[in-house]
């Protein structure tokens, strides 16, 4: 997938001329800060102060309004009260202004009156072809071009270094904090953007633009929510196609969103579960803490490439810290292969008290014999059994005497094995830390943070180059699929078969004689189930009878089912009784579709029974997706071992199960907007093949 750089956003984020409406010479006013910062940091373009009550602002000629400026302006910054913002923008001639940043609050975040003002502002911008950032935002900075279109005091206290990280935040306060943190951590930024109320430009627009920006290598985003799921998906897909990793902190990890008692899928598909699925699907790294957010951005910006896999080598001068790092590795899914036997023998010949296993402990003696550090590390990496190396040097990093040893160690390792990312854990002075980072090494004071960061990035390249996420689905099939106001089980299973999903054959009968005849045709044993669009959980009303053989058993079961249902659900409309063959032995799974209001159809998968009812051990993906993504979805659940043949059972056919999920995802897209939910429970995983045994379909309400 390739995208083009949005020209309208390029003029906004890389302006050659900037007008500040409400410009001021009074320190502390929001109209003064952008003028001050632009001049302070040497912005090379034209600065046009707009203030009808001043002839000059900070030594620059001022204009009464945008209409008084004859030339075209790339960017207009509005630092005027909300009530005057639309009027100020309306002075611009159509095509005169490319983009505008609205600092002012008092819009949609304040209620109905504010929403009306925001609508008027947006309309004025749209009529004049102006792209809008904000309102109620801190603006943006283009660090490489010295564009400071912000009133945040953060850059006034010291500019961040230019670099390859593009940072975008829906929260101005978090954005300002993140800018300051980036400066303290020594991270270099290409752009810093806050989006505020997102009347026009939103986080997805910014991510998509940064994905195509030549100065940006890594994208870091802070999100509170999303109104256009398709646009966000496209932005993440664009970043993945451009080879630019994305790190996201998404707040609101609570169960919110649609609830439906009839559907596990809807009940479990809360906001956070869907965002988590989105991030996994597009190889987006989700940071759960601020520390993790910056550690991941730092690592991606420093390392030339992330670890190719999850094999970690730990090299330490402290056995105790090595054990701590090994525990962290186990907790985060990293594996610790031992070095080759001859490499261990060579280490022990040099340092008899060392431990040659992984973690490799060379003890403090290595500090007094500098050659041991390099020779042991090179021995470990010589046969390609590690995807990353974490080295713990304790407080020795603060020694200026030992600095040449450590610098040579890092330089030689990077030169000989550039494909193995290196993280050094030690207390280095800031200047020495920066020298190591310039060599491409990560430096951590906390070895646990180093291990967790490595674990988060392990295999990232594979995640970013996953198969095409939008496999072809036949939209014309939509015409062939039934559209009903309600579905009983027979109709639901027919819908699955129409979509190419494997579903058990069945016969709908109206009386006991029909049940007996159907059972005879099918052959024993059979199952009988009540069929009613009004009854979702059949077993709760005695509507299911299993393992029936012979005419007498079938007749008795038919009578018992009808009697029980009439007793427990007297108002239910009954369509008859379904007769089907008993299913073979297999592992009961559950799969479903939920139509999310923001992201559209979402597919859920998990094991049945207690796994979904109590443990909620499920995975989600946004539809549609392909076979590889479906396999990842299956392997993601904690109960995956059950499908691999636990306790002597034969392994299940995961490819067939994945194919069923792909078909379900395609059905979800074909029926988007027409189905509120669809659930297959159980979806039987077999040693060969998969089989849907029951399905519940809930159509979307009329009008959406």
Q: Top keywords for this entry?
A:
704 residues; alpha/beta; Rossmann fold; 5 domains; seven-stranded mixed β-sheet; six-stranded antiparallel β-sheet; 26 helices; 29 strands; flat
Give the structure's gist in a few sentences.
The chain is of the alpha/beta class.
Provide an overview of this structure.
The protein is α/β, with parallel strands linked by helices and 704 residues long. It folds into five domains: 1-136, NAD(P)-binding Rossmann-like Domain (Rossmann fold); 138-302, Succinyl-CoA synthetase domains (Rossmann fold); 305-465, Succinyl-CoA synthetase domains (Rossmann fold), CATH 3.40.50.261; 505-581, 2-Layer Sandwich (Dna Ligase, domain 1), CATH 3.30.1490.20; 587-699, D-amino Acid Aminotransferase, Chain A, domain 1. 37% of the residues lie in helices and 21% in strands. The strands form six sheets. The protein has a seven-stranded mixed beta sheet with strand order 9-8-11-10-12-13-14, sandwiched between helices. It is flat. Residues 254-263 and 467-480 have low confidence and may be disordered.
List the helices and strands and how they pair.
Elements: H1 7-13, E1 17-21, H2 33-40, E2 46-50, E3 56-57, E4 60-61, E5 73-78, H3 82-90, E6 97-102, H4 112-127, E7 131-133, E8 139-142, E9 147-150, E10 162-169, H5 172-185, E11 189-194, H6 203-211, E12 218-223, H7 229-241, E13 246-250, H8 264-268, H9 271-281, E14 285-286, H10 290-302, E15 312-316, H11 319-331, H12 341-350, E16 360-361, H13 365-368, H14 370-381, E17 388-394, H15 403-416, E18 422-426, H16 430-438, E19 442-444, H17 447-457, H18 460-464, H19 477-480, H20 489-498, E20 507-509, H21 512-522, E21 526-531, E22 544-548, H22 551-568, E23 576-581, E24 587-596, E25 600-607, H23 610-613, E26 618-622, H24 627-636, H25 640-643, H26 654-670, E27 675-685, E28 690-692, E29 695-699
Parallel strand pairs: 1-2, 1-5, 5-6, 6-7, 10-11, 10-12, 12-13, 13-14, 15-16, 15-17, 17-18, 18-19
Antiparallel strand pairs: 3-4, 8-9, 8-11, 20-23, 21-22, 21-23, 24-25, 24-27, 25-26, 27-28, 27-29
């Amino acid at each position: 997938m390739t995208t083009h750089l949005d020209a309208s956003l390029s003029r906004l984020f890389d302006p050659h001329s900037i007008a500040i409406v409400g410009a001021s010479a009074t320190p502390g006013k929001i109209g003064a800060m952008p003028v001050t910062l632009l001049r302070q940091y040497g912005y090379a373009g034209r600065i046009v102060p707009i203030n009808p009550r001043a002839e000059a602002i900070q030594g620059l000629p001022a204009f009464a309004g945008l209409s008084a400026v004859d030339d075209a302006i790339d960017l207009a910054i509005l630092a005027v009260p909300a009530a005057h913002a639309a009027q100020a923008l309306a002075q611009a001639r159509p095509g005169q202004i490319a983009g505008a940043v609205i600092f002012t609050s008092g819009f949609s975040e304040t209620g109905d009156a504010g929403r009306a003002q925001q609508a008027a502002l947006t309309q004025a911008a749209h009529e004049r072809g102006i792209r809008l950032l904000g309102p109620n935002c801190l603006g943006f900075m283009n660090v490489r071009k010295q564009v400071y279109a912000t009133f945040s005091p953060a850059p006034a206290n010291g500019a961040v270094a230019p670099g390859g990280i593009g940072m975008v935040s829906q929260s101005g306060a978090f954005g300002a904090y993140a800018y300051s943190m980036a400066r303290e951590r020594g991270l270099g930024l290409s752009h810093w953007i806050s989006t505020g109320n997102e009347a026009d430009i939103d986080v997805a627009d910014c991510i998509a633009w940064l994905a195509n920006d030549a100065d940006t290598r890594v994208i870091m985003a802070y999100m509170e929510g999303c109104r256009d799921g398709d646009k966000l998906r496209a932005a993440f897909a664009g970043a993945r196609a451009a080879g630019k990793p994305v790190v996201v902190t998404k707040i609101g990890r609570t169960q919110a969103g649609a609830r439906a008692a009839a559907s596990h899928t809807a009940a479990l598909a809360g906001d956070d579960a869907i965002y988590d699925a989105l991030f996994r699907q597009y190889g987006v790294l989700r940071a759960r803490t601020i520390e993790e957010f910056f550690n991941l951005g730092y690592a991606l910006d420093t390392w030339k490439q992330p670890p190719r896999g999850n094999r970690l080598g730990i090299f330490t001068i402290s056995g105790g810290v090595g054990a701590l790092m090994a525990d962290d590795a186990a907790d985060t899914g990293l594996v610790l292969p031992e070095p080759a036997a001859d490499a261990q023998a060579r280490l022990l010949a040099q340092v008899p008290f060392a431990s040659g296993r992984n973690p490799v402990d060379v003890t403090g003696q290595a500090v007094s014999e500098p050659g041991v550090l390099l020779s042991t590390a090179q021995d470990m990496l010589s046969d390609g059994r590690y995807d990353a190396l974490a080295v713990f040097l304790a407080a020795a990093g603060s020694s200026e005497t030992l600095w040449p040893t450590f610098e040579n160690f890092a330089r030689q390792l990077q030169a000989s094995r550039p494909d193995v990312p290196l993280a050094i854990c030690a207390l280095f002075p800031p200047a020495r830390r920066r020298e190591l980072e310039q060599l491409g090494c990560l430096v951590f004071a906390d070895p646990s943070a180093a291990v967790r960061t490595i674990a988060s990035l392990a295999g990232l390249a594979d995640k970013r180059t996953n198969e095409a996420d939008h496999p072809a689905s036949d939209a014309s099939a939509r015409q062939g699929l039934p559209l009903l106001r309600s579905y009983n089980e027979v109709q639901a299973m027919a819908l699955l078969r129409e979509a190419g999903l494997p579903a058990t054959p069945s016969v709908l009968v109206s009386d006991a004689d029909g049940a007996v005849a159907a059972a005879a045709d099918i052959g024993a044993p059979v199952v009988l189930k009540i069929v009613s669009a009004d009854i979702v959980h059949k077993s709760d009303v005695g509507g299911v009878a299993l393992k029936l053989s012979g005419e007498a058993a079938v007749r008795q079961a038919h009578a018992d089912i009808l009697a029980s249902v009439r007793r427990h659900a007297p108002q239910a409309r009954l369509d008859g009784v379904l007769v089907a063959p008993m299913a073979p032995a297999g592992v009961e799974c559950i799969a479903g579709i939920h139509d999310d209001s923001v992201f559209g159809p979402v597919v859920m998968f998990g094991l049945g029974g207690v796994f979904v009812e109590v443990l909620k051990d499920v995975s989600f993906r946004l539809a549609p997706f392909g076979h590889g993504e479906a396999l990842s979805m299956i392997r993601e659940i904690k109960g995956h071992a059950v499908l691999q043949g636990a306790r002597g059972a034969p392994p299940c056919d995961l490819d067939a199960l994945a194919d069923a999920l792909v078909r379900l995802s395609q059905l979800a897209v074909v029926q988007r907007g027409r189905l509120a939910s669809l659930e297959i429970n159980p979806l039987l995983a077999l040693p060969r093949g998969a089989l849907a045994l029951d399905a519940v379909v809930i159509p979307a309400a009329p009008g959406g």
